[in-house]
Amino acid sequence: MTYSRLPFSGALALVLSVTALAACGNEGDTKAVDPSASGEPSSTGAPTPVPDGQVRTRGLVTVLDTGDGPELCLGAVAESYPPQCGGPELVDFDFGDVGAEKASGVTWGQYNVTGTYDGTTFTVTDAIPAALYDTMAKPEAGGLEPACDDATTTDADMASPEDMDATLAAASALPTYATAWLSNGTISVAVTEDPEAAEAELRKTWGGLLCVTTVEKTDADLNAVNQELQAALGDQLLTSGSTSPDSLDAQVVYDDGSIQDWADETYGDGLVRVSSALEPAE
């Protein structure tokens, strides 16, 4: 789930985040590792690892063929009919008799795919359609939790939607403001310093549940890092955005740990959390 950073447009606005990148918003947009990927650092310093053995997708992903051959959609999929997405070319793939749909010359379906990946092409050794795929995956979290577990109410008469809007506006005007979000009826505000002063200011307009916490990075800081990630990782990067108030999540096509190490060395431990769309096959 992706969130939008303040300023808020209404009382029900949720957590802020850096703008997420979509791997494919239009037909033909492809997010794949450079053909010359060798595991060595790119011109930007970021490594481009390629798996040695077989890998598989993490759960189900869309496979789509617009007429030029099937592609493995590891990033975002446009919710149109037919869907639109792109990704590494698939070799030795068959949609089979279960689960594939066709419309307007496009064939697509959901599959768990296993095979080898050379940086541009995924050669399939096994593909399980969604109808035959048994998963015990846990549902994704619906959003951020409050910044503290001991939030209190000071004045129930100052907890209207109008009070909330005024408080969110006041939060964004704080000189140390970093980010803010709403969850479980609690306003959480992150500042870079002096949380006591920030809370005292916010209590002038809000008597409901409130948490004020401190973080090192502001909204602008995280946006700057996100822009750098886009340039450094290029086609390896599928999506990036903020799902916590002081870090970025970046999903890449494949990481053997070297991209995470590079991110930690470049931006500091824990600021960028790297996940891989492909994982080693057991």
Report what the structure shows.
The chain is of the alpha+beta class. The chain has a domain of 78 residues. Strands 1, 2, 3, 4, 5, 6, 7 and 14 form an 8-stranded mixed sheet that branches. Helix 4 links the parallel strand 12 and strand 13. The two termini are 28 Å apart.
List keywords for this structure.
elongated, eight-stranded mixed sheet, 282 residues, three-stranded mixed sheet, alpha+beta, 14 strands, signal, disordered N terminus
Quick one: biggest sheet?
8 strands, mixed
Task: Calculate Rg over CA atoms.
Answer: 22 Å
Structural class: alpha+beta
Bin the helical content: 10-25%
Order of helices and strands: EEEEEEEHEEHEHEEHEE
In round numbers, the mean pLDDT is 83
Straight-line distance between termini: 28 Å
* Total helical elements: 4
Write the layout of secondary structure elements.
Elements: E1 55-57, E2 61-65, E3 71-73, E4 89-91, E5 101-103, E6 106-117, E7 121-129, H1 161-172, E8 177-183, E9 186-191, H2 195-202, E10 210-214, H3 219-233, E11 237-244, E12 247-252, H4 258-267, E13 272-276, E14 278-280
Parallel strand pairs: 4-7, 9-10, 12-13
Antiparallel strand pairs: 1-6, 1-14, 2-3, 2-6, 5-6, 6-7, 8-9, 11-12
Region (Disordered): 29-55
Signal peptide: 1-22
Keywords: Signal
